[in-house]
Amino acid sequence: MMRRALVGLIVAFSLTPALAQPKLEVVGGRKLDLGEIVRGTVVERIVTLKNVGDQPLGIIQVQPSCGCTGTLMSSNSIAPGDTGTIKISFNSKNFSGRIDKTVTINSDSENEPRIVVEFTGVVKVEVAVTPAQFWFRNAEVGRMTSGNVTIVNKGKNPLSLTGFSTELDGFTLKLPAQPIAPGDSAQIEAEYTPKAVRSVVSDGVLVNTNNPLQPEVYIYIYGSVKEFKFQ
Prior knowledge:
The protein is mainly beta. The chain has 2 domains: 20-124, Immunoglobulin-like, CATH 2.60.40; 127-226, Sandwich (Immunoglobulin-like), CATH 2.60.40. The protein contains 1 helix and 17 strands. The chain has one helix at residues 2-15; strands spanning 24-27, 31-38, 42-51, 57-64, 69-73, 77-78, 83-91, 97-107, 114-124, 127-130, 133-140, 145-153, 161-166, 171-174, 185-192, 198-209, 216-226. Strands 2-9-8-4-6 form a 5-stranded mixed β-sheet, with no helix packed on it. Strand 16 and strand 17 (216-226) form a beta hairpin. It starts with a helix and ends in a 5-residue tail after the last strand. Mean pLDDT is 90; it is low at 5-17.
């Protein structure tokens, strides 16, 4: 009798369908090539996710590897057999050369609850700035201090710097009067006459150019301001 009951349980178990589970699949693969990117542009790509399981799939978190990357999920839940999308946007403003970034997708998928999507590219710079910032350490209230950076024209045409804008009070630039030939460089001189004490200066200046690929170049401004003491 016991033997017949055991055989019945085994048969019943073998006829029971496998537990229903959600399963996540990245359509088209987990690697994206963004190609050549002009510095300062924002590149967007769409990643398609599919639930190949037989239960609704929940997206718990989408986590980019750095602040340069933004993500937007079409929905936090994907029905069985359906698809959803993640829009990935990469801001190339602070990069040059090859980039390697990732986006991690955490879900309740039965097969892989954590999936990493990688994307690569090469950031091309036609208008380079060296160093990347103006630095005014211990500037004094009411006194002019100066600094400079070098602009390098890596494009194929003469480069003209046509203007600038900044929200930093007391800051101005002296731009080159003549175009910069391809392969050549020129200096930009900055003058800063602060009007108040500031323990930290963290700002920037936007320089306008005639380069169609980089019509604007952002240069950081860092430093500090103290009271002027006559000696």
